[in-house]
Amino acid sequence: MAKDDDLKDSDLVNHNSRSKTDQHSYKERLDELELIRRKKKAEPQKNQAISKKLPKLKKQRFNANKFRAGILIGTFSIVILFMLYLVTPISKINDIKIYGNQQMSTAEIGKSIGVKKGDLIFKVWFNIAKEETHAMKNNPQFKSVRINVVGPRNVTIQIKENKIIGLIHEQNHYYAALSNGEIKKVNQQLTDYDMPIYSGFKSDSVLKATILQMEKIPTSISQNISEVKFDQTNKAPDRLLIYMSDGNEVLVKYTKLAKMMDYYPGIATQMTTPGVVDLQVGAYSYPYGTKDE
């Protein structure tokens, strides 16, 4: 009898357990159905929202395409206009004015710089620094070069020169000695220049040092120098022989040329006859033929 009661209790427990499981499954099913119902209800609203946004999206896309098309058309138009500009006269240099030259001719300056009428103005504009550097390297007589584009078609060139302060006579040719010590090869005839002639120099460094010394001499003295000759001896390896336009000769070391030539005017005024002014050691003079030079 007790055994039967136990079986009944066990069946009751199992039944209750199954009931709870069934209830839980039923609840889950209801939740799924509710979720499906909500999704179906939300779909029309979602579709309606998309329908409202669609015209705006189309308008935005149209505006974007219109903007891109505008950029392409604008770029193409600029390229066409620039190409037309290049083939018209207004793109080319019409006039070049040169300022500051005293010894150099406009033809020489134009050739050295390389800017000429008919060149594209924008090419000059974007290459000013390059043209200035090229000119300085191409011609040592340029002390400075400044190129400016003035207006749509005009160019000005402002220069400063290293002056030609003498002529170098070498192998029947004349070269220009510049105030910065450089030597300039020239094609034109320079013998008409009223300036000293340098001769007898075998060392470029000695010649350059002499030229730099000459540049320091006051014009009142240097304008009376007709020739500067390197005239070394065993006892005087750095001696110069200078011929003056007043008929005197000067002996002086090239390393002290500028300093010692300051004494020349005072000594020359005391000389009664042409002779030699010796400025190698001290400063004195003597008539020609009275002393072995």
SSE inventory with pairings:
Blueprint: H1 2-86, E1 95-99, H2 106-113, H3 121-126, H4 128-138, E2 142-150, E3 154-161, E4 164-170, E5 173-178, E6 183-184, E7 197-199, H5 204-216, H6 219-222, E8 225-230, E9 239-244, E10 249-253, H7 257-260, H8 264-270, E11 275-278, E12 284-287
Parallel strand pairs: 1-3, 4-7, 7-8, 10-11
Antiparallel strand pairs: 2-3, 4-5, 5-6, 8-9, 9-10, 11-12
Pfam families: FtsQ_DivIB_C, POTRA_1
Membrane topology: Single-pass type II membrane protein
Biased composition (Basic and acidic residues): 1-12
Give a structural overview.
There is one protein chain. This protein is of the alpha/beta class and 293 residues long. The protein has helices at residues 2-86, 106-113, 121-126, 128-138, 204-216, 219-222, 257-260, 264-270, and strands at 95-99, 142-150, 154-161, 164-170, 173-178, 183-184, 197-199, 225-230, 239-244, 249-253, 275-278, 284-287. The protein folds into three domains: 57-87; 91-161, membrane protein fhac (Ubiquitin-like (UB roll)), CATH 3.10.20.310; 164-287, 3-Layer(aba) Sandwich (Rossmann fold), CATH 3.40.50.10960. It contains eight helices and twelve strands. The strands form two sheets. A nine-stranded mixed β-sheet has the order 6-5-4-7-8-9-10-11-12, with helices on one face. Strands 1-3-2 form a three-stranded mixed β-sheet. Strand 5 and strand 6 (183-184) form a beta hairpin. The longest helix is centred in the N-terminal third of the chain and has 85 residues, at 2-86. The mean pLDDT is 81. InterPro entries: Cell_div_FtsQ/DivIB_C, DivIB, FtsQ_DivIB, POTRA, POTRA_FtsQ_type.
